[in-house]
Amino acid sequence: MGMLVRRDLAVKYQSSMLGYLWSLIDPLVQALIYWFIFGVLYHRSGDENMLGHAGYPLFIVSGIFAWMWMSAGITESAHALSSQSRLITTMRVHRQIFPISKVFARSVEFLVGIPVVLVFALIFHGYFTWRLLAIPLAMVIQGVLLIGVALILAPLNVLFRDVERMTRLIVRILMYSAPVIYPLARVIGAPGDPSSLPGWFQFLYQCNPLVGIMELQHGAWIAPMFPSAQLVIMSATGSLIVFILGWWVFNRAESAVLKEL
User: Fold this and answer.
1) Domain boundaries along the sequence of the chain
2) Are 71 and 175 in contact (CB under 8 A)?
3) Which of 80, 175, 197, 199 has CA 20 to 30 A from 157's CA?
4) How much is the pLDDT for 148?
5) What is the pLDDT, as a whole number, of residue 52?
6) Interior/surface letters 110-132, b for 16+ CB within 10 angstroms, e for the rest
7) Which residues are CB-contacts of 32 (< 8 A; sequence separation ≥ 6)?
8) How far is the C-alpha of 110 from the C-alpha of 27, rounded, in Å?
């Protein structure tokens, strides 16, 4: 596993002048774009109450770095088997390690980005309390979720070529189905607020494991955004269900995948 992770990182940046800096530049540029659109052009009154004393740049950066791990993990793990067919058919190892190694490789890039988020927290009035422990908790939950998704997509992408296009669509949908670039309060609203979305929609929205994960990532630095225990439990439970489903799908499809490769 460690060898595959190191090889993946080395191959990805071997011909690049900036190397690992791209793992920081890409999310920072995206964060700048979203900050300009949602923090400047479409700034709405009331955001200050949702974010406390923290600035919107801290909110967007803490969300984007976590999202980039999710996005890259899904996209690259989907090709983990189809892109390494010769290695997979000749090595006598558990083949689950190929998509899982993609998830771990992208987690390294996320860890490299944490010091950048720390700098933003210092500049934009982030909180430095015990709530920073939410970051490793969020990483564990997100890692379990990503591995489950990877174990589903990797074999299906070998058997059904439409999965590649579907993966791109899934990533786009997930980006806006979780509070990555907008506060959760924009969806949940205040109790009794006539402008709030229907209760059934709010419940379904919070069933998305990414919602609790992103709230942990934001709440580690921004005090008012720390999620409830119920939301964290829902996120952890959903991630575990996806993980179990992924392991089952991979085992069922493995023999068919080997024939196809």
Assistant:
1) 48-260
2) yes
3) 175
4) 95
5) 56
6) beebeebbeebbeebebbeeebb
7) none
8) 10
Q: Please give the DSSP secondary-structure letter assigned to residue 208.
A: S
Q: Which residues contact 83 (CB under 8 A, 6 or more apart)?
A: none
Round to whole Å and give the CA distance between 103 and 109. 10
pLDDT for 47 equals 55
Q: How far apart are the C-alpha atoms of 258 and 120, rounded to whole Å? A: 47
Q: Looking at residue 20, what is its pLDDT?
A: 62
Query: Helix (H, G, I), strand (E, B), or coil: what is residue 78?
Result: coil
**Residues belonging to the chain:** 261
Q: Splitting the chain (261 residues) into consecutive groups of 10 residues, what average pLDDT does each group show?
A: 56 56 75 75 55 74 91 86 70 78 86 89 85 93 95 88 83 89 78 64 90 93 85 95 94 81 63
Q: How many CB atoms lie within 10 A of CB 165?
A: 9
d(CA 135, CA 215) in angstroms, rounded, equals 10
Helical axes 229-260 vs 209-219, angle rounded to 10°:
120
Nearest to 68 by CA among 100, 101, 127, 111: 111
Contact 98, 154 (CB under 8 A): yes
Of the candidates 70, 33, 40, which has an alpha carbon nearest to the alpha carbon of residue 55? 40
Nearest one of 64, 16, 56, 17 to 39, comparing CA atoms? 56
The reported pTM is 0.85
To which residue do tokens 């990414």 refer? 210
The two structure tokens encoding residue 228: 């409830």
Mapped to the 3 state alphabet, what secondary structure does 90-129 carry? HCCCCCCHHHHHHHHHHHHHHHHHHHHHHHHHHHCCCCCC
247 near 88, Cβ under 8 Å?
A: no
